[in-house]
């Protein structure tokens, strides 16, 4: 059996609980009356879970007051001084003066990158 209560929307959501650490949000609630929705019945049979999810998705997509609101995200830390280095040297260039063949030595996890920049074989 599935616990469908985990899929139901909470009656209220404390905005302080949805903030990620290190990110300040400046949210503005839409101006206007809150839409009133009829109560949704509980799902009588587990086989109806797809309909239940699709109904919730339609309600969320058509609700102009549902978070996330239009907001400005302010990132205080952008990772300068990272030991990972920079990828700024991988800018697009049509001059062909860069040698990216070493990307082929990085293994299968980097095959797509090697194909993009190293001129590897396309699948």
From TrEMBL:
Pfam families listed in its UniProt record: CADH_Y-type_LIR
Protein name: Cadherin Y-type LIR-motif domain-containing protein
Disordered, as annotated region: 1-50
Source organism per UniProt: Scyliorhinus torazame
Membrane topology category: Single-pass type I membrane protein
InterPro entries xrefs: Cadherin, Cadherin_Y-type_LIR, Catenin-bd_sf
GO terms under cellular component: adherens junction; catenin complex
Transmembrane segments: none
Function, in words: Cadherins are calcium-dependent cell adhesion proteins.
Signal peptide: none
GO molecular function, a single term: cadherin binding
Compartments, as annotated in UniProt: Cell membrane
